[in-house]
Amino acid sequence: MTTTCTSAPVLKERGQREVFCGLTGIIWLHRKMQDAFFLVVGSRTCAHLLQSAAGVMIFAEPRFGTAILEEKDLAGMADANAELDREVARLLARRPDIRQLFLVGSCPSEVIKLDLHRAAERLSLQHGPAVRVLNYSGSGIETTFTQGEDACLAAMVPAMDETSAKELLLVGALPDVVEDQALDLLTQIGITHIRVLPGKRAELDPAIGPNTHFALTQPFLGDTHAALVRRGAQFIPAPFPFGAEGTTLWLKAVAATFGIAPDVVDRVTAAPRARAEKAIAAATQTLRGKSVFFLPDSQLEIPLARFLTRECGMQAIEIGTPYLHSDLHGPELDLIAAGPTISEGQDVDLQLDRVRAARPDLTVCGLGLANPLEAEGLSTKWAIELVFTPIHFYEQAGDLAALFARPLRRRAILRGQHPNMLEAAE
Amino acid sequence: MKLAVWTYEGPPHVGAMRVATGMRDLHMVLHAPQGDTYADLLFTMIERRDHRPPVSYTTFQARDLGADTAGLFMQSARDAYARFKPQALLVAASCTAELIQDDPGGLAETMGLPVPVIALELPSYQRKENFGCDEAFLQICRALAKPMDRTARVTCNILGATGLGFRHRDDVQEITALLSEMGIEVNVSAPMGASPMDITRMGQAHFNVLLYPETAESAARWCEKELGQPFTKTIPIGAKATRAFINEVRALSGSTLPVDETRLRQPWWAASVDSTYLTGKRVFLFGDGTHVMAAAKVARDEMGFEVCGMGCYNREQARPLRALAKEFGLEALITDDYLEVEKAIEDAAPEMILGTQMERHIGKRLGIPCAVISAPVHVQDFPARYSPQMGFEGANVLFDTWVHPLVMGLEEHLLTMFREDFEFHDAAGPSHHGGKAQPLPQSAAAAPAAAAEGGSMPPPAALPSLENVVWLSCAEKELKKIPFFVRGKARRNTEKFAEMKGLHEISVDTLYEAKAHYAR
Fold first, then answer.
1. What gap in Å lies between CA B380 and CA A202, rounded to an integer?
2. What does the pLDDT average to over A302-327?
3. Which of the four, A314, A408, B75, B471, has the lowest number of CB atoms within 10 Å?
4. How far is B371 from chain A (nearest CA, A)?
């Protein structure tokens, strides 16, 4: 057996991090939970971040907003709790369709130690049972990018009802189309009692108990994992459902938990698996033999590196992740052949020095770095697109591979035209 | 505490970043938590910059708070100097760092760096992005510029262009060319394009040209007082203002060289008969104070529009804007609340909006065309082509940009004549905008095309009607025959007329009596 990355030393760095904070998760969570409102208690910076990260693409009145702290809140002239209660009352009066309200903590609210947990309890009493008020932190001092979703889901767990039913719980906010595909596959395999966290609406949120078996669909749900285990639920460790292989392994792990044999999974998934492999093969023509360097962004890096190296023939140089959660990422590291550097955290200037030295064929990075690296003649893939695009399970496996192939294909088309690649065009 | 859904301005440290990013050989160390690096993508994505902004973030985390965040700041400043070797270092705190009170300026001073260190005080809980630009540029000038001998030939500085500015790149080019035609050389154009060394030479210029009061008025006033440089007050947006600007520059410089106007096409384009249909189009203006005030004059005096509302989001410009609005017989709307602006536009029911990217979305929602005249910016505000707002070419650009969203003159007539044609109906939108014309649904109440292209946008709300006035169904039907781009005005005028006459019902006759009453 060849060695894998499981036992590889991890390069831990700290310094400037070129990442989003956890507030960014609100951008997809508020679309997923259709009766929820996310109220960030923070500064103008928080509001500006949400607006910039969202682009100006979703200008319908969003189900999120920022209660901006002002000088008088900080100077103690205004009681921040009274101010918050007033803003919440106004908001709920204007949006009677809201059933769940998340008070989202930010860097400033945490530094001034505004207790949003107590505020949520108080507001729940005032506005319940029609509206459930929860809180979590999306602050940059506590969370990186996708950890915001993790903190949000983890905050929902203690409020979930108790059940003793033997059920499968799928955890992670997936695009609707992907979620439907997953439910369909699992049903065909013979798993009938399936619940999803987060539900589309508050009344659809699952109950939980010692007979709940949960599978994660996203690799960044460490706190949610811990909260579910605390409630007695049982975790199904598995690689994540990216690519044909990852999806099959994930489904088999879930099936095994429910006493269903692997050959049942093979039979049910034969057709979609073949479709996925065919679609991946098309993109692999572009990707095979190319090198890839992941900068830390969403914690999707390790599963995606596994997919690109094992199913698309790429070579990983460095796989950077904001956090390495060994319980969750272990099954993935087991599958990645030894070789790439695994790094956790970031000192962006040092890491960019390594990128420039390695000159990878493809660098997966955030939007702040992509154009500067392109200008240096390096092809990049925006990491954020991996979070905003349906990429899970069989039917999206080809799309996932194509996301990485497109920058390379584009570069090939524009060869000789790119202002910083004239000398490279030969 | 104030609830914000969308904001017109970012926090002040983003303004300081716009100054730093526009400049060369300057570096900024920002005391800030993880996540504040989102600001980098504004520059690399919206403006397509090919370099990272020259900003190092200290990236403190929760576990550092009880420990040594000041040490982290000093380490970041040392590393940034060693790596980037800037001619000067800006230091500042973002909103969270302001709360932990590490005093980056004081810390940096003790470090003995071999370059000037310029500390910025940016009160994040009181001020906003434009203040951050203005303050950062003022402090840079105070730290680096000194009185010195004037250049032998008449020169000036151009002040105000920053990173992420609305058309700053092209405005500077246009005004530089105009000044050159007048025999005036540009000594330094700053902040954008200037290095700290260039700032030290600013005192050589004979006067300053202030293009953007939002970002550089404090610096211009400081230069006037400390360097003895007068500055221009006219913002050269539109043909008339450009001519006034030329006269102001002549008075300051003594230049007598003629300026060639042959490339100015806007006055003839506006006077030619094709433009007759622009007469009295009701426009609503919103944006930063400077651009709105300039655009209001162009709209009224050079395009023949009727200005039916104006406002700005930056309180700093409230006073002059209020005065100008009064001159137009209007009350200015001074707010940074997006929902309030939307409400005002809905109430005014204009035929066109001249606004920001935010108003573009309001226009989409309400089915009102919109042209963008001001920041906040969007990737579309950084076109590949040359597209200034200022000078004579800027006047040409304004004409094209403002006319483009409208239904063209003859098309407007055809829509009026055959308004129920199943494919050439008014909900299909202007024909030169592409987009698939939706076949007219059976139930005649078609949503404007804007809703179809708006993606997740909900359908536009029906225009509010007065509570005590009822539309009879025949009148309502007749109203729907009026093209969509004037329907809002017709509805409003009719209701106002009915109210004035004390009518509680609106019939077809009321509709046409109102039309005759408001005819012009």
1. 39
2. 96
3. B75
4. 16
Q: Which CATH superfamily is domain B145-253 in?
A: Nitrogenase molybdenum iron protein domain (3.40.50.1980)
Can you give the three-state secondary structure of B30-56, one letter per residue?
EECECCCCHHHHHHHHHCCCCCCCCEE
Q: What is the pLDDT of residue B459?
A: 35
A/B interface, count of CB pairs below 8 Å? 191
CB contact under 8 A, A68 and B62: no
B52 and A368 within 8 Å at the Cβ level: the answer is yes
What share of chain A has pLDDT > 70, as a percent? 96
**Whether residue A218 sits in one domain with residue A204:** yes
Considering only CB atoms, A372 lies closest to which of B14, B52, B454, namely: B52
Q: Are residues A180 and A236 in the same domain?
A: yes
> Which range is most confident: A45-54, B163-172, B340-349?
B163-172
Indicate the CATH number for domain B266-406: 3.40.50.1980
For residues B248 and B207, what is the distance between their CA atoms, to the nearest angstrom? Answer: 11
Rounded CA separation B490/B481 (Å): 11
pLDDT at B272: 94
pLDDT (0 to 100) of residue B426: 57
Write down the pLDDT at residue A224: 98
ipTM: 0.93
Strand partners, B310: B285
Domain that holds residue A194: 167-264
For the domain covering B470-517, report its CATH number.
1.10.8.550
Nearest to A300 by CA among A354, A366, A394: A366
What single-letter amino acid sits at B64? D
The two tokens of residue A210 are 């010692």
Question: Residue range B219-244: average pLDDT?
Answer: 98
Distance of alpha carbon A114 from alpha carbon A383, whole angstroms: 33
